[in-house]
Structure formats: structure tokens, C-alpha cells
Amino acid sequence: MNRRTFLAAGGGLALSSTLARRSRAAAVDQPALLGGKPVHKGGWPKWPQWSESWEPEIIEVFRSGEWCGYGGSGKVGEFETAYAKLLGAKRCVTTASGTTALITALHVMGVDAGDEVIISPFTFIATYNVVLMHKALPVFADTDPATLTMDPASIESRITERTRAIVPVHIYGMPCDMDPINAIAKKHNLAVIEDACQAWLADYKGRKCGTLGDLGCFSFQNSKHIPVGDGGAITGNSDELMDRCQAFHNCGRAFGTFKGNGCFSRGTNFRMNNYQAALLRQEIDKLVSDTKRRQENADYLTAGLKEIPGIQPVRLPENSRAVWHLYAFRYDASQFHGLPRHKFMRALAAESIPCGGGYGEQYYDGLLDEAIASRGFKRLFPAERLKAYRDSFQELKGNKLVCETTVGVFNTLLLAERSDMDHIIEAVRKIHAHAAALASA
């Protein structure tokens, strides 16, 4: 059949239709940044989430006039009992925030001016600040790029005669490898304070984060999985330590086994209010069901994303479960034709998949320079120690790599439908397929 006969027989129309379909398919497959349509349409679950069923109990508290919970009484006491039971801890003391929980725990474990505390550098800045507030030096263990948490192998080289405690951070709700951390602490007679401010119900070898060290600290800030605007808690299994926490956070009033100086000891007002506790207690069931949903969707995401070259999901400790305050993975630009991380994230956002880069190398942001240049720190630490401390930031090779390559998907996405998880995977696949074009755009 020649061309004229083909066209006369309607072949031209068929060919035109086929080409049009191929053109539309190619356009659909194009990344949104290159003119294609976003993979995800519609929104994502909002946060925080409210239930009208919580209102009567909170209104009852306001009408009662008993707004402040002293010494674990009222709704505060009810929530403390319920939260301790939820985690399998002996005791819980609520506080005004996760930050004040950490301040209280450091004080109770004896951290004082001139001491050193080993912490993770890949964390919210509050972990740095609470150590500085005690006029102590936050000394950084390195970050394991495979886990994004404290590398136990890097701890012992940081220990000095001034080291008082280790603060492992279960960042993004991912458990640290606590067995070797606790072994090192025991060997050197150091306290272990878990920063579990993003790790409600995270599980390490059958035990909940926040019950694995001497004390565990939690946050209930607005973005957290069990939110109340601002609030926090300390958990522990020692009555002596928990009595001291109760006393310190309640203006130093003697409590239980801790008598202080007969009435008051050093302390401050870090108390939670009854109406906050009333809301938190009612959110516990939702926390449990939301956590299950996040974990199931995260498992599904991991199975799909790990098949894409250049995407490395986080490795968790054996027999452990994360709760995913952010769902994080490492991004290898070399597997995406050199597409820089910031362009990858912009392309992902264009597909209506919100994401971020997580924490940077915050020890270079000026906060620590200001602290060690202050009159107080110069009095407490020799000049050569402060210089060596500042120089040691360059040794944090693992943390530098993590800060430069991590991508985090916001946790509310994990509360969406399973089909929405397919959208995330599809968006990353699409970006990978068109990485060369995106890199040159």
C-alpha cells in the first residue's frame, strides 16, 4: 500500500490518533517541573487534628477552676499514670515542654557547670541548648549515615574526665541502638538520658523508647504525634529519680523520697496544666491507632522506594520499630544524573509531595561560638579545651554526610491512604527517569 492509498483508507486518521495518545502519555509521564501533571492531586491530612468528643472533659476542667495540677494531682496525675502505663514505665512526670523535660532530667542526673555531655548533632536545637543552659559543654558523637542516629562506635573517643552523661536522640521517631550506648555508659559510670521528644511508642527490642536509659524525655508540642500546643514529660523506673524530677519541676518542693532541705531545694516552675493533661489523656487511643497506620504506610513506602537506585531508606536496629515523625531516606545524586538534592526536593514538591532536608550542621550556625566565647564558659573551661572542642566539629564526617543527603517526608502524609503512598513512590520514580532533564533545566 502506497502513501496515497493508506491515507485514503483512513490510515492517516489512525496514525494521528496513535501519535496523539503517545504525546499525551509522554506529557503525563513528564515531571511537573517539566510541564507534566503532578502525581498527587488533592491535599494531605492536616495537623493537629481535633475531635469534638474531647470537648466536654476540657470544659469541665475549666468550669472546675482547678486548672493547675500540683504534684501529680487532678487530670495531670491521671495522664501521668496513663502515659507511664502506655510505655511500660514505672513513673511519669509531666512538664511544660520537651525542652523543660530535658532541663529537668539533666539537673536530676547531676549535670552541672563545667561538665560535658555527649549528644547527637543531628537533632532539634533544643538538645544543644539544654546542655548549654547548665553551663555544660555539648560534645558531639558522630551520626551513623545508615541510621541517622548516634553512632555508638564514636562515643568513647569523646569521653573525658568531665563527661557526666550521654543523651542519645531517637530522631524522627527512630530508635537509637541503645544496647551498646548503655554498655558504654555503664563502663564509664555515665547517666543516660533519652531524648525521645519525637519517639512516642517507638520500640527497641520489645521495650519502648523513654524506658531504656535512666530517664526519658518527651515533647507534646503542636507538631508532635500527641500534641497539646506545648507540653512534655519525663519517664523513668527509679522512684528516687522521679521524685527528684517532681520536686525540681514544681519549684523545688520536697516530694516523696526527696526531702531537699526539709521543704525547698533548687527548682523551677515547669508544671503542666490540668486542661492540657485532659486533652492528652483523651488523645492516647488516637496516638496508638495513628502510630499503627504510620508504621504500615512507612513499611509500604520502604518496600517501594528501596527499589529505586539512589534512594536509601533508613536502617533500624534489630527488632525495632520507628514511629516516623518524619519518614526519612538518604538521597544519592550520582544515581540521579547529578541532580542536586535541593532540585530533587523541588521536583518532589512540584508533584505535590511535601518534603524537606532535615537538620543542617547546626554547630556552625554561631550558637556554640557565642556560648564558648562567653565569660561564663571561659571561666569554666581552659582555652585549649574550648579550641579543641571547636576544632572537633570537623571530625563529624558521618553527620556532614547525613545533613547533605537526607530527605524527609512529613509525617502527616503517612496518615493518608495506601494509594497515596503509591503516589510518593511514583513521583520519585518519575524524577529518577527524567533526572538528566531536570538536572539541566
Give keywords.
441 residues; seven-stranded mixed sheet; alpha/beta; globular; 12% strand
Describe the model:
- With 441 residues, this protein is α/β, with parallel strands linked by helices.
- The chain has helices at residues 3-8, 11-29, 55-64, 74-87, 98-108, 126-133, 178-188, 239-249, 274-305, 341-350, 367-372, 375-380, 383-391, 397-405, 418-433, 435-440; strands at 91-95, 116-119, 137-140, 163-167, 191-195, 203-204, 207-208, 215-219, 232-236, 311-313, 320-321, 326-331, 355-356, 406-410.
- The protein has a 7-stranded mixed β-sheet with strand order 1-9-8-5-4-2-3, with helices on both faces. The chain has a 4-stranded antiparallel β-sheet with strand order 10-12-14-13.
- The radius of gyration is 26 Å and the shape is globular.
Order of neighbouring strands in the sheet with most strands: 1-9-8-5-4-2-3
Approximately how much beta-strand content do the residues carry? 5-15%
pLDDT average, as an integer?
Answer: 94
Number of alpha- plus pi-helical segments: 16
Low-confidence stretches: 18-28
Class of secondary structure makeup: alpha/beta
Secondary-structure map:
Blueprint: H1 3-8, H2 11-29, H3 55-64, H4 74-87, E1 91-95, H5 98-108, E2 116-119, H6 126-133, E3 137-140, E4 163-167, H7 178-188, E5 191-195, E6 203-204, E7 207-208, E8 215-219, E9 232-236, H8 239-249, H9 274-305, E10 311-313, E11 320-321, E12 326-331, H10 341-350, E13 355-356, H11 367-372, H12 375-380, H13 383-391, H14 397-405, E14 406-410, H15 418-433, H16 435-440
Parallel strand pairs: 2-3, 2-4, 4-5, 5-8
Antiparallel strand pairs: 1-9, 6-7, 6-11, 8-9, 10-12, 12-14, 13-14
Helix pairs in contact: 3-9, 4-9, 5-6, 5-8, 9-15
